[in-house]
Structure of O-fucosyltransferase family protein:
Amino acid sequence: MKLYQHNHRGGAMVALCVLLLPILFPSLFTPLGHASPSILSEWNAPKHRHARLLKGALQSQTSNEQQYDLWMPLANQGWKPCVESTIAFALPKSSQGYIQVFLDGGLNQQRMGICDAVAVAKILNATLVIPYLEVNPVWQDSSSFTDIFDVDHFIDVLKDEISIVKELPEDFSWSTREYYATAIRATRIKTAPVHASVNWYIENVLPVLQSYGIAAISPFSHRLAFDNMPMDVQRLRCKVNFQALVFVPHIRALGDALVNRLRYPSRKNEVVNTNYLREVIDAKEKQGKGKFVVLHLRFDKDMAAHSACDFGGGKAEKLALAKYRQVIWQGRVLNSQFTDEELRSQGRCPLTPEEIGLLLAALGFDNSTRLYLASHKVYGGEARISTLRKLFPQMENKKSLASAEERALIKGKASLLAAVDYYVSTNSDIFISASPGNMHNAMVGHRTYQNLKTIRPNMALLGQLFLNKSMNWSEFEQAVVEGHQNRQGQLRVRKPDQSIYTYPAPDCMCHA
């Protein structure tokens, strides 16, 4: 009888534990989603995949000459910014109607869409309604244009180019996102081809404007061509990107505070008030101004899963990423047809934090380098970043540089967090992105426009080097340095079909 009571009591305890599991460990019971990491893969810390190179990197010494060359600013390359139109235009007395655009994607994709929307309004002689930013499906961020960008500055800079309104007049208040989501509407343009021409807009959108006084274009990302555009339209797109789109004051001020703390570490713990007043640095302190590099570590779960590469997390990680791929993309990931070795040799695998750390060390950055980590959420968490931190102990990010009070206005808002990183990146001495993507492309273009140093990893070379397990540190270092000599910000003139936002010369720049 006692044994029965004991077993009954034990069974009850087990049942109670099972019932409490979802409360104690909710992430184990969360449906698979874009931002939900695999608990199995992230609880098992990934092993070092390049232990031999890591040992060499930790023991290596960088020469003063190498350091000097590495941090040397770019020389003048014979180009200067040119965003003003060469033709004097006056705004027409009457507009053809209102243009609405609905923009999806992350901050940088939306930024490019805003520039294109201004250009389309110019082409059609229409009044642009401040673009509507869709809720980000990955990070569930509902930040609006006015949450991110200084709308009054935007309108003022472009006032001589196009007419812009913050919201539709009452007669058109029915034209909302919800209105277009419920049925087919005559005022919605949903057939705009990718990289549509000027003529396409004149033939397909202008008649809608003339008939209804309004046209809503959705989807709109990448819906305007880069080639065969009038020069004044190209220059206008450049003007929007480099002059009209500035972040709201509290983003800029927080960014300034982070930049100053990176340049002057002694000020890191000084408190900035909730208005993010700019920190004032006296002349004496300026003499000790330090340099820093921004690393955009694009290593989230989406990137890892879509690449179909092996990242050293073992069987649990492989299964978690394979399941994620199947749920999110239903098998439409072509990379999954290739082996890890094939993908790496072609440069199609994102660099892990360990690998980007080895690249930085080979280029000449050392443990005294001030490194700012621009990232949202890293797949694998701190365990994945530990090797990078071991190589660069002076690595910082928003959380380490700013107090919780200072970060209150951006907490949990992916677009605002990305805006701060964008601002810090445009003010760094050197920028490097671990993998290609919208942030990489936008920053390459912005820093080319400013003539600032930007290192572009040679993905194919690095993939092949990391596959060679017999390579020692000196061989790796030499191969990396030689493979990146012409990938440090040298201006590249845009070719047909390439984006003016990544390659601003010659559309946004002139020969000096």
